């Protein structure tokens, strides 16, 4: 049984993230969407809120679990019995960063493999930062995030 970890901040989860989760759930026996507790970032939503948003968006995916972690990604993956890290790629600059992270993770744990999925074309421009900026200025985000996230952003930002 191959377990994949899809780590990230997911502040908030977008339809681009959800695309990667859905496609990953077809490739792996189990996908754990792991929300990082990164003290160097100041997220808009708490870890618990982000986990709830992801759970709401993935409720129909029976092989997807949501968790959080506050250690190295490879340490968390090993603790979950996962040897695959799932990562999404939007543009070339993502690849440069993700390749560096993949090599670093491999240097920390030789058994881990990183699997890259390119985002679907309609989400290639999408980022959580962009969604938050649009929402801050009152723009429409319903086509960019799950409905519960659109509601949560409206409640927090407006």
Automatic annotation (TrEMBL):
Subcellular location: Cytoplasm
Keyword Transmembrane in record: no
E.C. number: 2.7.7.3
Pathway(s): Cofactor biosynthesis; coenzyme A biosynthesis; CoA from (R)-pantothenate: step 4/5
Origin superkingdom: Bacteria
Cofactors required: Mg(2+)
Family indicated by similarity: Belongs to the bacterial CoaD family.
Name this polypeptide is given: Phosphopantetheine adenylyltransferase
Species whose genome carries this gene: Candidatus Synechococcus calcipolaris G9
């Amino acid at each position: 049984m191959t377990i994949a970890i899809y780590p990230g901040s997911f502040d908030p989860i977008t339809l681009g993230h959800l695309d990667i989760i859905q496609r990953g759930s077809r490739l792996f026996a189990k996908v754990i969407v792991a929300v990082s507790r990164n003290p160097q970032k100041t997220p808009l939503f708490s870890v618990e809120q982000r986990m709830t948003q992801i759970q709401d968006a993935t409720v129909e995916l029976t092989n997807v679990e949501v968790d959080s972690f506050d250690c190295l990604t490879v340490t968390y993956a090993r603790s979950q019995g996962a040897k695959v890290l799932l990562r999404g790629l939007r543009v070339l600059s993502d690849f440069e960063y993700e390749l560096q992270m993949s090599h670093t993770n491999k240097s920390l744990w030789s058994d881990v493999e990183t699997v890259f999925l390119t985002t679907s074309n309609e989400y290639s421009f999408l980022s959580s930062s962009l969604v938050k900026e649009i929402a801050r200025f009152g723009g429409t985000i319903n086509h960019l995030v799950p409905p519960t996230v659109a509601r949560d952003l409206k409640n927090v930002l407006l």
